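Researcher: Next sequence.
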Amino acid sequence: MRLQLEVAYHGGSLNGWQSQACGNTVQDHLERAFSALCPGFVSVQGAGRTDAGVHAEAQSAHADVPPDRMTPREWILALNAHLPETIRIMKIREVSDDFHARFSAKGKIYRYTVWNAPAMHPLIKDRAWHVPGELDLQKLQSACALFTGTHDFAAFSLKRSEGSEMTVRTITSIECEKSDERLELTFEGEGFLYKMVRILSAAAVRHASGRVDLDELASQLQKASPAFNQSAPAAGLCLQRVIY
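Model: Next structure:
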């Protein structure tokens, strides 16, 4: 029986999503929780990787378990009892065997949060990027408009390996919302390259602060290799939802 999981996690103390030797990733914790409840190893496949320090409100994953063992509600309660407080399974549903958390996904929504004030609020110190200087909201929106659409984002991403990678991606929308000191950039797209959202967020903020011209960003967008070398901190990024 295949289960789809909706997983929320606070990434501050975690080493990202994908399994590592340290054993302190979301995938590692989930697979250990399943192992405590099922005979043998249960592989948990996620919709995508998030880096160390990045959060998720609704990451999607799937796992194959013995049939008729528990109801979805019972699975939620049992698995959460074996997970650290920083990781919680919020929803579980039974899906068909051809569902795949990664390959069935049509897109993702990420939100990047900036705290734009002289002092960082201590209650969100690990959930936002502190930018104390003034930001021009109109310039921020102009940068977001530049990045929206289908582009080769090689200049605004990092390579995970030495092999070739398709770097053309489509960003459906980038919404800018400001409420007092909190500034949020919401990215929706078919898929994102390694550190792409964090690098684009840094580029938009640098333009809004007057440190880089829009023409320069447009010029860099035409380059076929990494050109913008600043990445916004991981703490401000959250995977909001996976679209199916």
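Model: The mean pLDDT is 95. The chain has two domains: 2-95, 107-243.
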